[in-house]
């Protein structure tokens, strides 16, 4: 993204996909003060549900970011990452689902609701607006819920749906303010997860126009 293509909080961001990285991306945006909506087609961490009985393939204390841990601790002071092996079911039920109910994301998760199309829409300026620089278009998402189909607009979109997305795009990629995370496959689950977290750091740094904005670094006291 060009350095001048920035989005200041509380700009609106739609995160599509409530898997581990989608939840982390939504949390990161909320920590920075963005107006974030998290949209999930089926259920939280849906792609993991058929593996619930399996042992989590990464260390339990490495399955959520420092920001996610802080969000859980703010709601549950006794929360601490397990040092013993846990199942994927425990990851979903004890970490991922509770994260969507923390203060940062409560009321901002739309589920089940499938995004079927994303278009760009030009911004209509008032006649009195004296803006010389180019204003990029917003995004219009067509979403299908249980009972109806609606549209919602956002200034930025983060797609956290893995390698495939059953979404019709009305534009050619890449396009400013539309990001995809979690596409890099790896046999190492921990490496894949933390690579996705670094992608989140990078995209938000670009949104605020900074070379680096790593909220995952340990605090200095």
Q: Would you mind describing this structure in some detail?
A:
- The structure is a single chain.
- The protein has 221 residues and is of the alpha/beta class.
- It is 24% helix and 19% strand.
- The chain has four helices and nine strands.
- The protein has helices spanning 20-31, 66-75, 88-99, 189-207; strands spanning 12-16, 35-39, 109-110, 114-121, 138-144, 149-154, 156-159, 168-169, 178-180.
- A five-stranded parallel β-sheet has the order 3-2-1-7-9, with helices on one face. A four-stranded mixed β-sheet has the order 6-5-4-8, with no helix packed on it.
- Strand 5 (138-144) and strand 6 form a beta hairpin.
- Helix 1 packs parallel to helix 4.
- The chain is globular and about 55 Å long.
- The mean pLDDT is 90.
What topology emerges from the helices and strands here?
Elements: E1 12-16, H1 20-31, E2 35-39, H2 66-75, H3 88-99, E3 109-110, E4 114-121, E5 138-144, E6 149-154, E7 156-159, E8 168-169, E9 178-180, H4 189-207
Helix pairs in contact: 1-4
Helix content: 10-25%
Order of helices and strands: EHEHHEEEEEEEH
Strand content: 15-25%
Please state the structural category.
Answer: alpha/beta
The whole-number mean of residue pLDDT values reads 90
Radius of gyration: 18 Å
Care to give the gist of this entry?
With 221 residues, the protein is of the alpha/beta class. The chain has helices at 20-31, 66-75, 88-99, 189-207; strands at 12-16, 35-39, 109-110, 114-121, 138-144, 149-154, 156-159, 168-169, 178-180.
